[in-house]
Design goal:
Length: 185
């Protein structure tokens, strides 16, 4: 039995979708706006998703894994930066903790895991082929759901970032778009 690495990448996409939906639930459901570093971590997760999408659509390539690895390193660096900002014992941290860790700490753990899995999977030579592009309509259902779901999340999250930051400096106390319309009347 051979392992279908396009399906493995689709599973990774679905995991990215779960992480992004969790962040959106905290943002929209609990009313906690993400900070600028949080937005950069979301961007890094979407970058990981982009590499996974490319593997699903265009076949398994080392350059796609390079995107995943680079974005995981970028996300881990941003996460470490945020962890170090809140490292003092008296600092309550940013946002709510989940199982004792804040989201940025969990993000660091996930980025390190993504990087390690990426390096491990890259070493498996049997996955590389010249299958080339396979249209989304010709992909298995799980691949279509994963690619379209993460794509839709990317668009939705992009709209939320614009609503929060707009064309000004990003902040965590209100949505720019609502403030813009309230003060222009």
């Amino acid at each position: 039995m051979t392992l279908d690495f396009r399906m493995v990448n689709s599973a990774g996409l679905l995991a990215i979708a779960v992480l992004q939906v969790s962040a959106l639930v905290v943002q929209l459901g609990m009313g906690e706006l993400p900070c600028t570093l949080c937005l950069l971590q979301r961007l890094a997760f979407f970058g990981v998703g982009l590499g996974l999408m490319l593997n699903v659509l265009y076949g398994i390539k080392t350059r796609h894994y390079a995107i995943i690895g680079a974005m995981a390193v970028f996300g881990a660096a941003i996460s470490i930066r945020q962890i170090l900002l809140h490292i003092l014992p008296s600092d309550p941290g940013f946002s709510i903790p989940v199982d004792g860790f804040h989201f940025y700490t969990w993000a660091f753990i996930f980025f390190v895991c993504i990087l390690l899995v990426c390096l491990w999977v890259m070493a498996y030579g049997g996955q590389y082929s010249d299958d080339g592009f396979i249209a989304l309509r010709d992909q298995p259902l799980v691949n279509r759901v994963a690619v379209l779901g993460v794509g839709a999340l990317l668009v939705f999250d992009g709209l939320l970032v614009f609503a929060q930051c707009g064309i000004e400096e990003c902040h965590t106390f209100h949505y720019w778009i609502l403030h813009f319309f309230n003060t222009s009347a």
